[in-house]
Amino acid sequence: VQLQESGPGLVKPSQALSLTCTASGDSDTTSYSDWSWIRQPPGKGLEWMGAIASSGSTYYSPSLKSRTSISRDTSKNQFSLQLSSVTPEDTVVYYCRVVVTTVLDYWGQGTQVTVSS
Q1: Which end of the chain is less crowded, N or C, counting CB atoms within 10 A of the terminal residue's CB?
Q2: What is the pLDDT of residues 102-116, one digit of tens each?
């Protein structure tokens, strides 16, 4: 399974960031248990942002919950992230990850997003 993040690399402050992760290499991804967005600020560790489960339930980091929305389009093997009211502190690398089983997950290569006017 390959994951590819896509979206604008540059977003203006106060605007919304929208990213999409497309999974390829598996014709049936509906059973994947967890579809997550994770980000990494420069020089810092990974920060889990939120996830959507195979049931469609969503879970968000408390620190980002008010600004984050995750959705999924199973027909396209895609899931998306929307982060509203971005600031320069949201200038980080964003990763998507899917959990297939408890011992198998896949990560996208990551996409750099810069928030700047």
Answers
A1: C
A2: 898 999 999 999 999
